[in-house]
Design a protein that fits this description.
The protein is mostly helical. 49% of the residues lie in helices and 0% in strands. The chain has a single domain, classed as Four Helix Bundle (Hemerythrin (Met), subunit A). The longest helix is centred in the middle third of the chain and has 22 residues. It binds heme C (HEC).
Length: 140
């Protein structure tokens, strides 16, 4: 989540803004830590970040993994693969939108992506104190 989905979706979200077109590559783009300013930058970074999210959804379905609180990833709960599949679809939509370099299409795709993240989070991640807080993440 923190290593792939968060940074990759931020690249897609950045492409929604008008300033995105003005971003210049870093002085040495082959050493850049900012994907948008790197040698694979600009719209290519948006394409690649979309693909990174789409491919990484497979990791969310690997058996035997645990959430940060030690609870098993809820693979047996039919909603989990559904949310994973919605995310994959949204990421594929972002990839297609990035290929067009059309900001209106990226706006729609970014919106669908954010919705796919938040649908799953509202069930499995956001646990209020009265729901047991983080200790109850990854359970319904
Ligand atoms: C299939 C469900 C699901 C989807 C889809 C999903 N997440 Fe998550 N996310 C989780 C769960 C569960 C956690 C808590 C994981 C843990 O504590 O081990 C989490 C945690 C996170 C965290 C860490 C937050 C924290 O306080 O620890 C970030 C950042 C994050 N997700 C970003 C994203 C983004 C961005 C997307 C969409 C591109 C996304 N996630 C899509 C289930 C999902």
């Amino acid at each position: 989540m923190q290593g792939i989905f968060f940074p990759s979706s931020n690249v897609i979200f950045a492409a929604q803004h008008d300033e995105f077109a003005q971003v210049k590559p870093d002085a040495d783009p082959s050493l850049s830590t900012d994907p948008i300013k790197s040698v694979y930058g600009s719209w290519l970074a948006v394409e690649n970040s979309s693909l990174a999210i789409a491919e990484a959804t497979n990791l969310l379905l690997l058996p035997g993994r645990r959430c940060s609180n030690g609870r098993p990833v809820p693979l047996m709960d039919p909603d989990w693969p559904k949310y994973v599949s919605d995310l994959r679809q949204a990421a594929q939509g972002a990839y297609k939108a990035a290929q067009t370099k059309d900001q209106d299409r990226i706006l729609d795709a970014a919106d669908a992506l954010a919705t796919a993240c938040s649908h799953c989070h509202s069930v499995y991640r956001e646990k209020a104190p009265e729901q047991g807080g983080e200790a109850n993440r990854c359970v319904k």
